[in-house]
Amino acid sequence: MKKLVTFRPVLATLCALPFAVHAQGGQPEGPAQPSQPSMASTPSSPSTPSVPQSALWQGTPSQAPGIPYPSGLYYPNAAFAPAGTQASTVTEEEVGPALRFRVLAGMEHESNVTRVATGGKSDTASYLGVGLAADRHFGLQRVRADLEANAYRYHNDSSLDYNIFNYAAAWDWSLTPRFHGTLGANQQQYREVQLDPVTLTNQVGRRTESEELLQGVYEIGAAWRVTGDVSHTHSHSSLANSWNGNPDLTNGRVGVGYEFGSGASVYGRYRHGSGSYGDNAAGGGDFHEDETDMVLKWPATGKTSFDARLGHLRREHDTNKQRDFSGAVGSAVVNWAVTGKTSIAGGVSRDLNGTGDIVGGRVTSDRVFIGPLWRATPLVAVNLRYDHVHRAWEDIPSGSFNAGRDETANVLSAAVEWQPLRWMSVSGYVRGERQTSNANTGYHNTTVGAAVKAFF
């Protein structure tokens, strides 16, 4: 099997170089401001997608296993998703100064910690976390980094203990006012629930998804843009027989776009990728992907923004052609600032993946989410969030283990955060999870927790 080369160490080194250079001369900029709907690009500020703030406020330090908050949904076409928004109560608005450390601690109780259909056991976990956020400008360059490590320790069953390390780093480079781009890397770790094909019961493991990206944009006149990028994505699960085969993929992408004076933009892109599977159950041989898509960004009003992507994906394999699949993919996110204190974000997405099984087929994942946020006072914020995820195993030969498999997950969470001091906040949260399945993967769980965090 062909071994794909990762350039993660190179990216990490290059993204760190500007910090070292900046430390020797120049002073830090002022505090970073929350992302706003982007305007047409300027030489010192390349255009970036708008970021729904309600979508970033996730409220619960841990995520529902197997139902991560995908950064690609909240940051359409973006190269940087703060690690603190992936697995903690930290929001992008709290990044603060150009360099800031954070620590967090808390406890949470789970009614069904092993996520099994019957006979589940409850347990309480204590967790600690440390993080670092940096955002610096010098000349036409900007460097951003956000890292967070969390350790979860259960009181009754230490075999359930786990650690996660999420990071994001990006160098927004600019060689000339018209030629600029991003060099970035990110990693997201989270728990996942997977059906054991032997015992026919759920197992809880840890999944790691990472990406490295080099992206360039050339401005042709005031509005037209030509884009290109190379990237590497990798998935890994601590459990055997991963549901998608743990693909490892190297991509090249080209595109052309138009930026309107209103801040709206539309891009057409084509991507070709070559990859292989890390899980032996998926079968040997390499595969190739071709994807075309359109990306739209539209600040409809001063209070409402819309980001969308619609495309078509095709994956073809060198051997065992029954694993080939194709279909529509995409996502859309709407952010609405209802009042000065209330905002709502909602979105939908569709993704396609291989089944991780040599018999072939595909997994279609559809997701709907909505998340209102209410800032009751300058010191108190309340948020709700609902996620509905449906996954279907399709085009699988009858008689195979996953033939006709269909499962749906519903997650509802609520959180309250209070900031009694400028450098400290306290939060409480509750999350209900319900998964139904025709393959014995259904379960119910309720998580209740509290956390305190401090910034330095």
TrEMBL record:
Residues 1-23 form the signal peptide. Pfam families: BBP2_2. Residues 32-55 have a biased composition (Low complexity). InterPro entries: BBP2_2 (IPR018759). Residues 25-62 are annotated as: Disordered. Keywords: Signal. This is Outer membrane beta-barrel protein.
